[in-house]
Design brief:
- This protein has about 120 residues and is mostly helical.
- It has a domain of about 80 residues: Orthogonal Bundle (Helix Hairpins).
- It contains three helices and two strands, in the order ααββα.
- A two-stranded parallel ribbon has the order 1-2.
């Protein structure tokens, strides 16, 4: 029995990202942790029903079983959405840093920002 499969690596990546999300105080590390979690979800979902003897559903091959193209199509869409979420998160971080001058989630009450 092979313990290192796409499913186990995907679950491991997800929980590494979850640990980073819960423990890191900087905004950039939080965004990176979310991206690691997304990568784990992509890997898990694509490899959950993988079978090495299937072929893509293209052409007229009748002797082999066809692979289901829906998980791949869903994950391509999820990757595009994940890139957009990461880009928006980093853009919001840049504006927050310019506005307030800090890179952490919790703001010290004694620290002066650009608010009046």
């Amino acid at each position: 029995m092979n313990l290192i499969t796409g499913e186990t690596v995907g679950i491991l990546l997800f929980f590494i990202g979850l640990y980073g999300l819960m423990t890191k105080k900087t905004i950039v590390k939080t965004i990176m942790s979310m991206s690691i979690m997304q990568a784990g979800i992509y890997l898990f979902y694509i490899t959950i029903n993988y079978s090495p003897d299937t072929v893509p559903p293209i052409g007229q091959s009748r002797e082999a079983a066809f692979a289901d193209p829906v998980p791949s199509a869903l994950m391509i869409t999820a990757i595009v959405i994940g890139i957009g979420v990461t880009a928006i998160g980093l853009t919001m971080f840049m504006h927050y840093k310019q506005q307030h001058g800090i890179t952490h989630w919790s703001r010290n009450r004694n620290q002066q920002g650009s608010e009046h």
